[in-house]
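Let's sit down with a protein and look at its sequence and fold side by side. Once you have written the record down, we can walk along the chain together.
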Amino acid sequence: MLIKTYGFNRWFVVIFSVGYLFLAYTVVTLVSDKFVDKQVQQAKNSIQHELALVRYSIEANIFRDAYLADSFASVVALNPDFAMENWEFVSEQFLGKAIFVRNIGLAPNDIISHVYPLKGNEKAIGLDFRTVPNQYKSVQLAKELKGIIVTGPIELVQGGTALIARYPIFTDTPYNTQYWGGLSVVINYDKLLKTSNLKNIKGTDIALVNNVQERLIEGDKDVLTNYDLSFPIYLPNGSWTLFAKYDDFNEIESISRFNQLFPVLGGITFAIGYILILSLIKNYLRIQNLSLHDELTGLPNRRYLFNELNRIMSRKNAVVEFTVLNIDLNKFKRINDTLGHEVGDRVLKHLARLLTKCLRSSDFISRVGGDEFVIILQRTTKSENVEQIIQKIHNYADTHPLFWKEETIRLSLSVGYYVYQDKGDPSQINEILSKADKDMYYAKMSKATEQGSGA
């Protein structure tokens, strides 16, 4: 009897041990596989997020400079003689805000008469586009479409690669039947890609295709035959497509080797996993917060602004009422050049604090880049009320200079606005911002004209 009991206990222990080991092996294998799959998916999600940011960066930067140039072209259309007589001044104002523009050229009757900056571009003066078929084709297309055309990238004779934005200029807006000439804007393609971090994304091969020209403009053509992801990039009157193919995830899959050590290190692994998850969540929240706020001023950034406008304009069944203010800090470049970028940063933070103090808590204040701020005034649409708020901003800026060491820096602002009263329509967002920007530009021009005339 003792022998049978001993044998039973022994086999029970053996069976239990085998069952437990089998269960442990199964659990460890499943957990390890799931962990590996999760890491791979996280890597893919990270790549997708980076590619989405690249797409957004390219779109936002091209549209930003495109809208600036469009405002500039509108000024030329309103008064071509004034624009040509004050070419250096108005061009400097434009290039002072543009990030990727290398130079601009004005071509009345499609013959270049003015270029800025002139240095290094003297040979362009007098160029008749009709004698250059490749370029004249895009000039004609812009004229026919009566809107901006972006072509390229092309290799420049002076070195580097650029996009060319063509703007037809009509002097009888909005009918656009009297063609005056065109404005050509050279956009630094190399700098655009570098800023977008397109070439720094790890874990994937990319290919960038110009859909209009149906040609590969960046990356590996082999990606086009076997890609994992594609992102459309919308441009004015055109589009690109960003294709991506994941690299081999062998390095991440090597985590499965830890399965051999998991029975011993299981507890440590779960503890580390817990810490890693907390770290991932913390980093995700931090990145998300950074992606929606301006690092210098702490205000919402351009991306946050578009999110807020999309939220407001998504109320399609109700009438939406708000006003957009576009604020630009005059002579900011001079402050940076004379007093240094540290003072320039302090000026921007000082202006951000002033706007926050003098406006309502319900008003949305954002810094969208450089020295440009955009404000959304909720439920404020009457012109007299808007003008009062603008005057309050001017008064507040005039009475609150920035004291820096022995310097007293007084702020001068140009403010434009646009009132929207209609049903919600997210497709109107860019048009609203463009109109507010144009109104600000006109305000800046008026102030510059007054100062120039001794007012």
